[in-house]
Design goal:
Layout lengths: L7 E4 L11 H27 L5 H8 L15 H8 L3 E8 L2 E9 L5 E5 H4 L7 E5 L5 E10 L4 E6 L9 E2 L10 E6 L7 E19 L2 E10 L11 E3 L4 E11 L14 E5 H14 L9 E3 L8 E6 L4 H5 L6 E5 L2 E2 L3 H9 L6 E8 L2 E10 L4
Parallel strand pairs: 1-13, 8-13
Antiparallel strand pairs: 2-3, 2-5, 3-4, 4-7, 5-6, 6-7, 9-10, 9-12, 10-11, 11-14, 12-13, 13-14, 15-16, 16-17, 17-18, 17-19, 19-20
Keywords: Hydrolase, Membrane, Protease, Transmembrane, Transmembrane helix
Protein name: Serine protease
Family: Belongs to the peptidase S1C family.
Amino acid sequence: MPEQQPPFVTQVQSQPEKKRTGGVGAAVALALVGSLVVGGGAGYFAGNAAGGSNHGYVNEALDQKPASDPAPAPEGSVEQVAATVLPAVVSIAVNGAQGRAEGSGSIISSDGYVLTNHHVIAEAEKGARVEVTLNDGSSHPASFVASDVNTDVGVLKIEGASNLPVIRFGDSNELHVGQEVVAIGSPLGFSATVTSGIVSALNRPVRASQGGGESSLMDGIQTDAAINPGNSGGPLVDMNGNLVGMNSVIASMSASPQGGAGSIGLGFAIPSNFAQRVAKQLIDTGEAKQPMLGVQVSIADPTRGAVVAGVEPGSPADKAGLKVGDVVTRLNERPIDSADALIAATRSQDFGATVKLEVRSRGNDQPRAVDVTLSSE
């Protein structure tokens, strides 16, 4: 098994830049060289005219002791966020018969529960050995608790742990586009790596292959903070150091995930509210459930919206009067332009929540509002 990389989406083939020859570019380069020579000569003359050697001044500067009074990190700076969050971030290595997988995680309890991605620890469910490295450099064995392929959320437990630093959960529902965020993890094996950026977009339905014909679907937070293979499972935090997302998927310029392309400013994180809910289910029951409408939707249908292909008898959708052929175009205030968008938006709701759907019926372009109470846990 190759070194674990996060799922990739959106393959884009870049075009090679055309080679230029001669012309103005060469003339500008020659002119620049000429100016450097002239400048160098002028500086040499001025130095000699000033009275010769400056070795005394140089030696005095080199003999100075380094300053020992660094200024404290400014409030709300990336430096301060890093100092706050890094102790609660771990590197994860999973060694199994198929090879080695690497990723990151966040400590969510002082006795050693770690939140990470399913795709980082999937082999651990089959008996692969798990090792977790803390920010202080110490390594510890960890046991697989549970994970969910559909949401790409997983949980480990560091063995024999106590009094560990814990990350704080933030409210991902309060995120805004343009808000500053910080990503922390172990890209390409470089532990405790900190990158910063902004929330580029919210509510991105992102489906990623998990192997074996399975896939996960997230209602992703898009960010331009650099995320690379190995960042998977690590935290995306706000400028108060609160976990607002779990880094999970990156887009690639490569034609395949094995192409080795790194960050192109298109990374996606699972919202913290969702990850927290799933993690609690995994710890308490060993499995994850999601709020449901009780419909099957057609992924292949090109119609803009989510086309209802089936309605489960007695389901919330059935009770609300949805029919096969209906097209859902909005859930509450959120536009729905695809089947994945409806699934992701529904999963992001609370169990038992009542949502308002905008629906068009077959043969009738006039939309109607339908209130649906989602399934309970």
